[in-house]
Design a protein that fits this description.
By secondary structure, the protein is of the alpha+beta class. It contains 21 helices and 23 strands. The strands form 7 sheets. The chain has an 8-stranded mixed beta sheet with strand order 4-10-2-1-11-12-14-13. The protein has a 4-stranded antiparallel beta sheet with strand order 7-6-22-23. Strands 15-16-17 form a 3-stranded antiparallel beta sheet, with no helix packed on it. A hairpin with a 5-residue loop joins β15 and β16. It starts with a helix and ends with a strand. 35% of the residues are buried. Mean pLDDT is 78; it is low at 1-11, 336-359, 363-370, 538-543, 553-578, 625-631 and 657-683.
Length: 683
């Protein structure tokens, strides 16, 4: 029983491991509703607007930003996206290629977009469409051909980074092996471990205790289906026999002692792809309830959002659902909208054209193909690859460049230098919080969100809680976003103080390293030194140890540092306490010198062999008052070893019966290769 408990404890995962194994090593979608980031900066009179999005995992905020440009003054928009993985950048290019494909009608475009965006398995026709897109994407990447070349800029990427994206494109051919179902099941088994057979109950717990309170528009059955099967958006009651190769990626790991890149599914298996486009829309009729139940679901909201973006880009005005289309007649946004049209066309005898593509126009009276999906003038999307802002540091082209910066919750540690150097005199930051993260409890989410505000204030930024009140879901729940404003003139004093503290810390560290480097030998006590110190007799003085491991000496009425006894091998003397920097373990409890070692028996820090002997002598005197303790170290070590052997024998005897019963070791306790994502095993 004891061994089983120890194994169970060893197999328990920390919160960080659960988080990493749940969301994966590559972000395939966002965990917060998409935003028009150009609206974050107020009163910007510049002719050029520069926006930076750091590891968003989602292209929908870019689409929403350019779709709303018609409502603002005309100006150049430079939208930068930085991602760590080439697979994420390749997905952005693919989704933009689908969105701006003039050969796709609105319904077909929306369905293919959502299917590739959120489903791990695809329909046959969608897989064939993806296969046919590869050559077009490679030509854009290598030769700058196609519609994407009009607004996507990849010239700031290195050639090896472009080559990596091209290799990703080539893995999307249907001839390339991709066992997505098996890969995802391995992730699920690793995540749930011995609770895998009860995962349905665990999913229901996540939904009932968290998701339902945040956004009830996410239907329980849709959430369960995605968590178990990986299908987020159901398309026309179809079957999904083909893998979504765009979700396959590589992870670094070790197998049999060798480093290796392993291909698999390393994306999210906990959060769901609904948070970015499936929980918030401008159309309030989508949230209508009947008998305390929503008449529409997150799939209707997602389909509405993609279609409305297509409509707004084409017509330069927001899309509004007609009042007669507010009732639902099926599981899809399209089935609800098509009810009125079916009745109308049945009278004219043209139902066959409707079944091909119900809503195949982007504006009233326009036929298919007459309305092209054009990117607004002055839009440039710059794709970059990097893990942080360090590659921008010191480069003039990035200095004081950005008006708006978005940081996903993967990038909290980047809320530091050199970020202020990249911002304009007046800038806005949007930081994704942990409000909708399922693997965190209430206290963890609060601590994470408080850290955002703390790091922002250290950089001289101001937290704008009023702006956060403007961004809420249909039920009044705030977006998991935190807004900070930056004014370089007001932040100068804060940044100067921060720089001064960092400079002092660097000098202190250099001084400490210089002090420690003066000692070339190992000053820990040896057996010979201990024997030589046996005859030393240093009188006891009452002392305590403060927070820095420095002894506090009592001297009559007052207590503090005066003069202390310096114990030297063979002689004793007194000296004034020098002003020294603390060692790695503080100060020696006896001599007051920088402490480099720690006594494992007493927990006190010491500087040299004399101090070690003094600590052991006093410790022995406390254990047996009035009686001298003179124990040979060799005898003590032998006694300790005999005691350990005796305890080990008792444990073996106690666990003999249990070992006889456990003939086959459970699968979850067997050794297996560890593939790590951010420090956590996923297989």
């Amino acid at each position: 029983a004891g061994q089983g408990l120890e194994r169970a404890r060893a197999s328990m995962k920390s919160k960080v491991q659960q988080y990493v194994e749940g969301v994966g090593g590559i972000r395939l979608w966002g965990f917060s509703p998409s935003l028009d980031l150009s609206a974050m900066i107020d009163g910007n009179s510049e002719e050029e607007l520069n926006i930076l999005s750091m590891m968003p995992g989602d292209i929908c905020s870019f689409l929403k930003t350019i779709a709303r440009m018609h409502s603002q003054k005309a100006r150049q928009l430079n939208y930068y996206i930085i991602e760590r993985h080439p697979e994420a950048l390749a997905r952005y290019i693919l989704l933009l290629s689908i969105f701006f494909d003039d050969d796709l009608g609105p319904r077909e475009c929306t369905e293919i977009f959502l299917e590739i965006y959120g489903n791990t398995m695809l329909r046959k026709q969608t897989s064939a469409f993806l296969h046919s897109k590869v050559e077009e994407l490679i030509k854009f990447l290598t030769n700058g051909e196609g519609k994407l070349a009009e607004f996507i800029d990849i010239t700031q990427m290195k050639f090896k980074e472009r080559d990596a994206i091209e290799k990703v494109f080539k893995t999307w051919y249907e001839s390339i092996e991709c066992d997505m179902e098996e890969w995802r099941e391995k992730r699920l088994r690793s995540y749930y471990e011995d609770r895998f057979d009860y995962r349905k109950n665990l999913i229901d717990w996540d939904y009932s205790m968290s998701v339902k309170d945040w956004a009830e528009i996410i239907h329980s059955k849709l959430f369960l289906w995605w968590r178990q099967e990986g299908i987020a958006y159901e398309i026309r009651d179809s079957k999904y026999p083909q893998p979504n190769r765009t979700m396959a990626s590589y992870a670094e790991g070790k197998e049999k002692g060798y480093s290796k890149l392993k291909r698999g599914f390393w994306g999210d298996i906990v959060q769901s792809p609904y948070w970015s486009i499936g929980v918030h829309a401008d159309e309030h009729s989508l949230y209508k309830k009947r008998s305390f139940q929503h008449t529409k679901t997150c799939q209707h909201v997602a389909e509405y959002n993609i279609y409305s973006l297509l409509y707004e880009l084409s017509t330069k005005k927001p899309y509004k659902m007609p009042p007669e289309d507010s009732e639902i007649h099926g599981r899809s946004f399209w089935s609800g909208l098509s009810h009125r049209d079916v009745e109308k066309i049945e009278e004219e005898g043209e139902i066959e054209t409707l079944q091909d593509d119900r809503l195949d126009t982007l504006s009233a009276g326009q036929a298919r193909g007459n309305s092209s999906k054009k990117v607004p003038q002055g839009v440039r999307l710059i794709l970059l690859q990097g893990e942080n802002f360090d590659f921008m540091k010191g480069k003039k082209k990035f200095a004081e460049l950005f008006d708006v910066v978005f940081l996903s919750n993967l990038c909290l540690q980047m809320l530091k230098e050199p970020l202020p150097d990249l911002l304009r005199a007046r800038a806005a930051l949007v930081v994704e919080g942990a409000d909708f993260m399922l693997n965190f409890d209430k206290n963890d989410r609060k601590a994470f969100n408080d850290k955002i505000k703390e790091l922002g204030k250290e950089l001289g930024m101001v937290v704008e809680d009023g702006k956060r009140d403007r961004y809420k879901l249909y039920n009044g729940v705030h977006f998991p976003l935190y807004f900070l404003s930056f004014d370089k003139a007001a932040a100068q004093e804060v940044l100067a103080q921060r720089a001064k503290r960092q400079e002092e810390a660097v000098k202190s560290q250099a001084s400490l390293e210089s002090l420690l480097s003066q000692s070339t030998g190992d000053e820990r006590p040896t057996a010979e030194a201990l024997e030589g110190l046996e005859a030393l007799d240093v009188p006891d003085r009452p002392y305590e140890v403060d927070a820095m491991n420095r002894p506090v000496v009592y001297d009559g009425i007052r207590r503090g540092w005066e003069r202390r006894t310096m114990v030297v091998l063979g002689r004793k003397g007194t000296a004034a306490a020098p002003a020294l920097k603390a060692g790695p373990l503080g100060f020696c409890a006896v001599t007051g010198l920088p402490a480099k070692y720690k006594d494992p028996q007493t927990g006190l820090a010491y500087a040299n062999v004399e101090a070690f002997k003094e600590i052991r002598r006093r410790h022995g005197a406390r254990e047996t008052p009035g009686e001298a303790q003179e124990t040979d170290p060799a005898v003590a070590a032998q006694a300790d070893e005999e005691k350990r052997d005796e305890v080990a024998g008792e444990r073996r005897e106690a666990g003999k019966e249990e070992e006889e019963e456990e003939i086959v070791e459970p699968l979850i306790f067997q050794n297996r290769p560890k593939w790590r994502l951010g420090g956590s095993a996923v297989l």
